Amino acid sequence: MSVQDGYNFAYLDEQTKRMIRRALLKAVAIPGYQVPFGSREMPLPYGWGTGGIQVTASLIGADDVLKVIDQGADDTTNAVNIRSFFRKVTGVATTEQTREATLIQTRHRIPETPLAAGQILVFQVPIPEPLRWLEPREAETRTMHALREYGVMHVKLYEDIARHGRIATTYDYPVIVNDHYLMRPSPIPKFDNPKLHRNPALMLFGAGREKRVYAVPPYTDVRSLDFDDHPFAIERWEQPCALCAATDSYLDEIILDDAGNRMFVCSDTEYCAGRQAAGHKGALAA
Amino acid sequence: MKPAIPLLQVKDLAKFYGNRVGCEQVSFNLYPGEVLCVAGESGSGKSTLLNTLAFHQRPDAGSIRYDLREEGVTDLATLPDARLRELWRTDWGFVRQNPADGLRMRVSAGANIGERLMAVGDRHYGDIRGVAKDWLQRVEIDETRLDDAPSSFSGGMRQRLQIARNLVTEPRLVFMDEPTAGLDVSVQARFLDLLRRLVAELRIAVILVTHDLAVARLLAHRLIVMRHGRIVETGLTDQLLDDPQHPYTQLLVSSVLNA
Amino acid sequence: MHEPTLLSVRHLGKHFTLHTQGGTTMPVLDEISFEVARGECLVLDGPSGAGKSTLLRCLYGNYLASSGEIQVREAGGLMRIDVAQATPQQIIELRRTTISYVSQFLRVIPRVSAIDIVAEPLQALGRDAGAARDKAAVLLARLNLPERLWHLPPATFSGGEQQRVNVARGFIAEKPIMLLDEPTASLDAANRAVVVAMIREACLRGAAVVGIFHDAEVRDAVATRRLPLSPIVAEQLAA
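Above: the input entities. Below: the structure tokens describing the complete assembly.
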């Protein structure tokens, strides 16, 4: 184990980690409730996942196996940087395999491979407050949460339907957690919303700039807002993944050339690669 | 006609800002369907009174009792916050002088009207939209404007939209703070007539603050004249305007044309 | 023959204190007492300044009596209410059910058509809008108001046209007590005759009418009794 000299294990000092863990315990105790915490300066700018990194740093132990994804991919700049950061400051094992990981930090996706009890998923959150767009005062949004005054949230969905004929919100789609708190699930596609519901894994959310953490404990009810006559529905694609032929995963559209040719492939690179290795072949697979 | 129980009972109400008196020694009863105007010059305490009556700010003395639909007559000071806020968005309305303060300027007229319905749990988009369209017509706004934001509306339309947004839950009491003050004279008549009709039709009790005695003459059953935070005279609107007793009321009435 | 008294005025006094004029007191009525029974038309007589209009306005609750009492028998009940002491709610209720008032001038409500202005007192008594409008149309036709005007707001009407709208509004609900302040002042002979006939009919159905009429001919035609009033002069005050 080769931890960077001069730094505490996982970069943050033990008191800070303890403070964050206390906030997380509170968050787990009150599912969906935003708990303030003393967010620290991190060696990354805000917007690069400082909230998620602090949550991960406060939890990670020497035995953990860490996976980091960004938009479903293990190999983007953000994912690679965060992974190498933790390798440097903890020396823990890292993986791309969802099943092998004990701790997964994610930006904008939930892995396609079902999570298991005991796993922890850490989300990077840019804006935690779902009511902020209509109410700029923090004291007022806190009261609204306390009293479950969420009717106004439907105003936003109403606007969607009035303008687009359907609920056009496709990511960061608001949910009600445990029949009480309204929560932003971070900018995951609404395709992932059903995975929040009664998930066996512990899901933690960290917002560094906004200094908030919140949680969805294992097996918690998570319901997406909708109207009776415009029920919540996830995205569907007319074709399977061009590489692994999956029909049950979230697909990214990739432009192939200037002639407008395109392909649809799994956004979850690990899931796609795993299927291809198991012999599944899409139309454009090499 | 006069029911035994007043809708609102106000007793010795006072609100202070440090040493300055916002309003004090204010007492009156308001009956269902009654329109009460509070008149006075700026600084007379009428807006302070209105905000205190609506419990947007807590009174420093005195009591406000309201005949709640379920619980009956209740001292508002004993009402939990959650119930008070529920009252604000169901059985009460509040129409502001500047429609931009009372509307969501960037969401559609339909959503502005539908908001209260969604707040009380309506979850059928088609129904909410239908009610919104109906209310748009009732306040004489073309239904083709249903999906337009009020930022594209004229001042008169905005104020009428604010009325619709407040009345959609058929409140029994609506507070209004100088609702005509920002309107061009040419559109005031239409607004006032519309308000007069709706209030009579729905039997809504109204407490309306105005400095315009002509507005009071047209709308109010009763009038309260305020000065320096206190009621100087109160009575039947036409009696008070045609035969004012208090020196200040006489001055106020004699300073305007054709009230 | 003993018809019941509907209106009873005792020791009524009215003065105005003009605070804007240094507190000057202007006495207008002093110790006025009279009664009006069912079917009577009491005409107030006296020169200008005698307080005729002021008296009518006191009876209607528009002016606050300074002293004395004004007992009114409420329609459909045996209750008597003192207008001089009544609450605003009681006066509004009396006006809805018992007392109508035809003033010299019509107070126009923006955008409301002539026929709706006339129909309104009947609707306030609970009649449906259609029936109230039908009756309003009958009255407006009888008063020879051109039909093309019925659905227009009267703001632009001539004085005579407005007055006929006012008369129709005052008569439509057939209130037990009717106060008429110069209802024929701007009318031509033909319409004056219509109003005279309407006042007589009101008395026949049992209304108690108190009126001021500039025109001696109208006065003679409708009066069953007269109440002379004269301006209060300084000596009277001193005494």
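Note for the figure: The mean pLDDT of chain A is 95.
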